[in-house]
């Protein structure tokens, strides 16, 4: 993965029904404070089933899910075939180190859209249901024993707009001391 703070949108995906994967689209529209128009996870409060079961009133910090194409390339080396949208992400990126961004980073995507990075996706067992053994590829341990989550980042929509494959992504880092990403 490159360490750049610029990248490109490889694919966009959404699904109006609960399903692990999301079909690719020609474009998606981001709605401020809600997420992806027509996507089952859009809303002010949590929409992921496990989060709703815990507390349906908690804020939705997982409105837009981004994954880096480089993860798919990495797992392909281990024999797994994963295409854009198949891990449930809305935006598949290339050339930007999503996992290295600090909390609060603004991502300017395309002509108008802006999302704020809230944290790391916490991968669940459904990933192994999609392809057995894949969960171990997207969650591992660092040398010091800490858990490393590689299944993308979550964000909230600050400024709406249409996103298409080929759009540029530019990261604007927050001021002050940077807080590393944690699971949300």
TrEMBL record:
Domain MOSC per the UniProt entry, residue ranges: 22-172
InterPro entries noted in UniProt: MoCF_Sase_C (IPR005302), MOSC_domain (IPR052716), Pyrv_Knase-like_insert_dom_sf (IPR011037)
PROSITE patterns named among the record's database cross-references: MOSC
SUPFAM superfamilies: PK beta-barrel domain-like (SSF50800)
MF annotations from Gene Ontology: catalytic activity; molybdenum ion binding; pyridoxal phosphate binding
Name of this chain's protein: MOSC domain-containing protein
UniProt source species: Streptomyces hundungensis
